[in-house]
Amino acid sequence: MVTTRLVVSADTEFLWQMVYWAAHVDEDEGVTLDDMRRDPDLVGHVAEWGRRGDLGAVAELDGVPVGAAWLRLFVRGVSDYSAFVDDETPELVAAVAPEHLGRGIGSVVLTSLFRHADRVYDQTVLSVRTGNPAARLYERFGFRELDRHVNRVGTESARMVRRAADRG
After folding, report:
1. pTM of the prediction?
2. Is the torsion defined by CA of 40, 41, 47, 50 positive or negative?
3. Half-sphere exposure (CA, 13 Å, Cβ side) for 150?
4. DSSP helix/strand/coil, 82
5. Neighbours of 107 (CB within 10 A)
6. How far apart are CA 167 and CA 147, in angstroms?
């Protein structure tokens, strides 16, 4: 049975693993988890977890973490990620360990996260590579494409926003 709980500081290592899958670092030839921790396009999504606005959920299967979704605020000029909207709109990162894909875990962890986040944030933003099947999941949660941009590896990604009026 899948259960969820809020992210705590002890989950930082697991969040790094989830960024690895969310950013498709496994597709970047020769890039390791340690390399990823130094990548300026990725480091801000986990480093110094526990800042103002950090909020996340972990999905566990029989007590073992298998997925996570979290929100983080960024500041213009300090962390201008491609999905950046403004200082009060957090960016979503979500991933499920590959061996657990297709079991509904992504939906479970996003439901848990937004149950808390919807009380705090008026909108949320994310960036997803075009063609990624996860985009359909995000649309079911009320995300709508805002625009497209070239991502860190030179391919195209969609920036999607979930506003209060769009919540499902």
Report:
1. 0.91
2. positive
3. 2
4. coil
5. 16
6. 19
Residue type present at position 3: T
**Are residues 128 and 134 in contact, defined by beta-carbon separation less than 8 angstroms?**
yes
Helix (H, G, I), strand (E, B) or coil at 151: coil
**Residue 4 dihedral angles phi and psi, to the nearest 5°:** -130, 160
Q: Of 19, 44, 46, 41, nearest to 153 (Cα)? A: 41
Residue 70's nearest CA partner among 16, 25, 33, 122 is 16
* Alpha helix (H) residue ranges in 55-158: 105-117, 134-140
Distance CA 123, CA 121 (A): 5
Question: Which pairs from 73-77 meet CB under 8 Å and 24+ separation?
Answer: 74/44
pLDDT digits (tens, 9 = 90+) for 59-96: 999 999 999 999 999 877 655 566 777 889 999 999 99
Other CB atoms within 10 A of residue 141 CB: 22
The strand pair at 64-72 and 55-61 is best described as: antiparallel
Contact by Cβ (8 Å): 125, 85: yes
